[in-house]
DNA sequence: CCACGGATTGGCT
DNA sequence: GCCAATCCGTGGA
């Protein structure tokens, strides 16, 4: 699908940088999950940044707890949480150890393993017209990729779940808005998505 | 110990 | 557009 020279796994030093930079640069990168022989992958098209220090909407805002402790690790780990009694959401931990920052992956454009994603989401193969519904939301991404609590704390520099490097999306192709679905710190414009991408969850 | 409510989704009015 | 579903982490008693 892509020339080999830029398709390679992101290393620790990508993730340990500043939250907002990592959030923005995650756009266009390819999330990969290996399930035995099966490979699920997709392009990250929408993210949100959460900062435990100054952001009341962040789960890390109240400090380190059993649920949030992975966010205080150095960047490059997976923070998976369960919400509304039904859905998992996945985040990429960023920054230096002790910072409590993470990037929520809100939407993905499927690349490989579309039939597996269909089964995970709907229990069977879907019509082409429904492909858009596979991964256009944070809960949907986790369902499609089969991500749940067992993936809490996974090291993204490992072999099971990782992200492939891709060329940076240009600034004029990135839309920056306020975040979605939160009731605190609503003024912060920490949501980033790829302009005109059909898999973005909301306009 | 117990009550509250959520970084959502999908179905119904 | 509105709202119920449905766990469980969190915080107050």
Summarize the structure in words.
By secondary structure, the chain is of the alpha+beta class. The protein has a single domain, classed as Methylpurine-DNA glycosylase (MPG) (3-methyladenine DNA Glycosylase, Chain A, Roll), CATH 3.10.300.10. The protein contains four helices and eight strands, in the order H-H-E-E-E-E-E-H-H-E-E-E. Strands 1, 2, 3, 4, 5, 6, 7 and 8 form an eight-stranded antiparallel beta sheet that branches. The longest helix has 9 residues. The protein is globular.
Brief overview:
By secondary structure, the chain is an alpha+beta fold.
Q: How confident is the prediction overall: mean pLDDT?
A: 95
Sheet/helix structural class:
alpha+beta
DSSP helical segment count? 4
Order of helices and strands: HHEEEEEHHEEE
User: What's the CATH superfamily, by name?
Assistant: Methylpurine-DNA glycosylase (MPG)
Helix content: 10-25%
Strand content: 25-35%
Q: Which residue ranges are poorly predicted, with pLDDT under 50 across at least 5 consecutive positions?
A: none
Features:
203 residues; alpha+beta; 3-methyladenine DNA Glycosylase, Chain A; 8-stranded antiparallel sheet; 4 helices; 14% helix; DNA-binding
Protein topology:
Elements: H1 12-15, H2 19-26, E1 30-35, E2 38-51, E3 78-83, E4 87-94, E5 101-112, H3 114-122, H4 138-145, E6 161-164, E7 174-177, E8 191-194
Antiparallel strand pairs: 1-2, 1-6, 2-5, 2-8, 3-4, 4-5, 7-8
This protein binds a DNA duplex (13 and 13 nucleotides) through strand 3, strand 4 and helix 4.
């Amino acid at each position: 699908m892509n020339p080999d020279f830029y398709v390679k796994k992101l290393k620790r030093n990508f993730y340990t940088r500043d939250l907002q930079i990592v959030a923005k640069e995650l756009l266009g990168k390819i999330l990969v999950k290996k399930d035995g022989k099966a490979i699920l992958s997709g392009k990250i098209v929408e993210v949100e940044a959460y900062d435990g220090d100054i952001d009341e909407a962040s789960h890390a805002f109240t400090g380190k707890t059993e649920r949030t402790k992975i966010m205080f690790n150095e960047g490059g780990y997976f923070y998976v949480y369960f919400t509304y009694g039904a859905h998992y959401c996945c985040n990429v931990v960023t920054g230096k150890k002790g910072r409590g920052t993470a990037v929520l992956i809100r939407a993905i454009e499927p690349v490989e393993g579309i039939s597996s994603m269909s089964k995970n989401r709907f229990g069977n193969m879907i019509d082409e017209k429904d492909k858009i519904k596979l991964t256009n939301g944070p809960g949907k991404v986790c369902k499609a990729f089969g991500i749940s609590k067992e993936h809490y704390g996974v090291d993204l520099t490992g072999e099971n779940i990782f992200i492939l490097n891709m060329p940076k999306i240009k600034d004029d192709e990135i839309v920056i808005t306020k975040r979605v679905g939160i009731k605190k710190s609503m003024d912060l414009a920490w949501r980033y998505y790829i302009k005109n991408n059909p898999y973005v969850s909301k306009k």
